[in-house]
Amino acid sequence: MKVTGKTITAGCIGRIVIFRDSKDQRVQMARSIGRLLKGFHGLSTLPELGVQLNHLPTCVSLRTASVRTKVALSLPFPPKPRDFSLPNSSWGPEMLGLYEHYNSLCEVETEGGEKREGPWQRLPSYNRSLKYATGGVYLSKIIQSKARLFTRNMRDPGAAFEYVLFVNEGEQRCVCIFQAGHLLEGPPGHVHGGAIATMIDTVTGTHASQLSEPVMTANLNINYRSPIPLGSTVLIESCVDKKEGRKTFISCKVTSTDGSKLHTDATALFLSIGVSHLLLRE
Ligand SMILES: CCCCC/C=C\C/C=C\C/C=C\C/C=C\CCCC(=O)SCCNC(=O)CCNC(=O)[C@H](O)C(C)(C)COP(=O)(O)OP(=O)(O)OC[C@H]1O[C@@H](n2cnc3c(N)ncnc32)[C@H](O)[C@@H]1OP(=O)(O)O
């Protein structure tokens, strides 16, 4: 059987070969890639994946009339990557308490004692997202192999960004519990504005990705209202203002954990990009 196409390297699941012959197989392929992406931070749900994958033939070069595409997904990093959104020894009592609170809302017990999904969902978080298939994205293979998600690249627990995100799909809300480590200093004893912006971008971007498909930040407006003490835990809450085609408008606020002090507020615009954007970009 003749097979054409390119190898798509993505995360943490074995090697899968998919032949794209019919609509059924397209759906199958969408499901497989959906499963593959599941678990990646910010990409754990891709409801419109099936539609997006219809674009694959334009980015995965097809040279035969038989329209068979081989999509090989290899194993570039260990099968069980660390989930950074789980508690570690650096988490203070405030961070842990809030984590326990939201985590308890992720599962509810029915009257019959049965466990069901609750209104909230904890999002796992890894230090790598998709690894692109082809050159042109990274300067070299060395950079490609060393690339890590900005907020998850510190080895020393508690030194920088400690955070966990929970989403409530029904309410279109997202909450992040963020403990700011000592390496994030800006003004003496307080968190750097760029670190705050990074967290706002991460929370709102992840939220927007959860609602549709992968997104890129097009616009981010931030008002810094009061400084955040280094080492403190804060809440970052985002909510969807509106969705218009590819655009998702989100607003966000950073407050003290009891909600009494507003540290920062922001608005953001995200534009969805197709899954094909994630897989190949030449
Ligand atoms: C390579 C893909 C990477 C994707 C990554 C995604 C997920 C990764 C997974 C896990 C990561 C985990 C955690 C982090 C999660 C998220 C946070 C990170 C997100 C970022 O940190 S990401 C980096 C910073 N980000 C950029 O590096 C973007 C640079 N930029 C561009 O890549 C393009 O600019 C783009 C794609 C934004 C749009 O380009 P485009 O060609 O697709 O669309 P186009 O320009 O035609 O605009 C269509 C309509 O949007 C309106 N529009 C456009 N821009 C606007 C603006 N600024 N203000 C107001 N309206 C705007 C137009 O006016 C038009 O409106 P209308 O249709 O009404 O006329």
Automatic annotation (TrEMBL):
Domain of life: Eukaryota
InterPro entries for the chain: HotDog_dom_sf, THEM4/THEM5_acyl-CoA_thioest, Thioestr_dom
Catalysed reactions listed for this entry: tetradecanoyl-CoA + H2O = tetradecanoate + CoA + H(+); (5Z,8Z,11Z,14Z)-eicosatetraenoyl-CoA + H2O = (5Z,8Z,11Z,14Z)-eicosatetraenoate + CoA + H(+); octanoyl-CoA + H2O = octanoate + CoA + H(+); decanoyl-CoA + H2O = decanoate + CoA + H(+)
Thioesterase domain: residues covered: 189-260
Keyword Ubl conjugation applies: no
Localization (cell): Cell projection, Ruffle membrane; Cytoplasm; Mitochondrion inner membrane; Mitochondrion intermembrane space
Main location (coarse class): membrane
Transmembrane segments: none
Bilayer topology: Peripheral membrane protein
EC main group: hydrolase
Record has Mitochondrion as a keyword: yes
This enzyme's EC code(s): 3.1.2.2
Family listed: Belongs to the THEM4/THEM5 thioesterase family.
PANTHER family, per database record: ACYL-COENZYME A THIOESTERASE THEM4 (PTHR12418)
Protein's UniProt name: Acyl-coenzyme A thioesterase THEM4
Organism: Anabas testudineus
Gene name of the record: THEM4
